[in-house]
Amino acid sequence: MSWFTKMIGTQLTLNNLQNLLVQQLRDLLSAEEQLIEALPKMADAAASTELKMAFRNHLGETRQQKSRLEQALRSMREEATSETCDAMKGLISEGAEIIDAEGDAEVKDAALIAAAQRVEHYEIAGYGCARTFAQRLGLESVARLLQETLDEEANADKLLTHIGEHIINMEAARA
Phi then psi for 164, rounded to 5 degrees? Predict the structure, then answer.
């Protein structure tokens, strides 16, 4: 069930942007909780030292991002609870398939980067929408928290691109 379907099935309606923002924040909170569990597994599966380090560093950021979401929800006088993010579940499931796959280490690292970038792009879209909703509602402190995370997600994506293009993909092409 998607966040949208869950929202329609509850007391929330599409005529209240604040309720939509709360639902988005809870979905993102679930996404970050799931990612906190997945990133150590991805780091362990990576062969590249640079990729291992990128995953481990992003784990620290992800914990901070979870904390920011909880802070944003509390500042809106909402419970800091999550709604299961099925999209992140699917993305992490795809990453788990890569972790369990046999094959060349560099090719596997390239696949891990691709899976991680799908996650980053999903988060960038989610945080961008939530930030825009917060701005429209005049919730500037919430918008700032979301922008901080959005910047970190964009930087993580750029780092993964750099590692892929300048290290992993060249090595994987030789496999």
Answer: -65, -50
The amino acid at residue 135 is Q
- Distance from the Cα of residue 17 to its chain's centroid: 22
CA dist 33 → 17, 67, 99 (Å): 24, 10, 19
pLDDT range class, residue 5, cuts 50, 70, 90? low
Tokens representing residue 106 in the block? 């560099």
User: How many angstroms separate the CA atoms of 119 and 35, rounded?
Assistant: 9
**Residue pair 19/12 in contact by the 8 Å Cβ criterion:** yes
Tokens encoding 21: 């923002």
Classified as helix, coil or strand, 175 is coil
Cβ pair 42, 116 in contact under 8 A? yes
Percent of residues, the chain, with pLDDT higher than 70: 91
